[in-house]
User: What shape does this take?
Amino acid sequence: MQTHDEEMESYLKEFIPRAIRPLEQEQRSPNFWPRRLAAAAVIVLAGGLCLWVTRREAETVPLKPLIAELQRSIPSSHKPLNTFLLTKLALDDNKRLNAVMTEESRRVLPSLQGQESTLRVFAGE
Amino acid sequence: MSVERLAGRAEPLEVHKLTAVHVKELYEKHGGALAAYACCCGLNFASAEDAVQQVFLKLLRGEISVPRAPVAYLYRAVRNVSFNLRRDRKHETELVGEDKWFVHWQGAREDVFALQAALRELPDEQREVVFLRIWSGLTLQEIADTTKVPINTVASRYRYALEKLRGRLSPDQVAKEQNADS
Assistant: This one.
């Protein structure tokens, strides 16, 4: 029995496992980390530049005139005049009525004050 | 410490991480046998190579710790990876029967295919013992130590496996080979 086993063993040892391909190590190229660092630096620089330009523009353009312009462009809330009061004013004090109406017209009608206003342009033509 | 030393005395409870040099030594010494073993688990040779590479790359990266005598552990790991790969790649064309995982020194192609078929038919535990004994060069005592199986069980598994192989591999031819040698 023992002899049979030894014969079989030696017969099996005649077979050699087929060679396999070499161990493929995951090798990163030597400039892997420098490339990553360079990419990160570029991203940080671009972000910083954008931030700097944005802040610089905000500092150079004066804000107060802009706000004033904006407020002028927005029509003020128009409160309709009280007809009863106007009638009473017309009966009692004609001069004051004229003053109120003049003031109201300045507020409601387009202004001719601006150098480039549309009405002035039309008037010029 | 050499691979032979690592593969020898068993200290089953002690685990450690192998150095890159040890991993490469183990790969060169046992890679082919492990690939053949993976083929027995139903993979074609290319997939078997992938399975072995997976296990050894994990060892190289230090992702797994191994016992002091790691060879039996490697067989178990390759078997597990092989079953996973086989499940994942079952849609691929099966070419298991056409692959050669062994070469015979006399180039006996038919004998190679006969051996491969016979090995594939062995039960897992018997096949493992045969591979560890014949193609990884462990003694039965070392196999018993590393697989944590009693030596008598290992010896009987080995004996049964050889009997089955002898039955499958035309005993006359085996005897003839032996006589020709002597």
About this structure: Residues 133 and 139 of chain B are 6 Å apart (CA to CA).
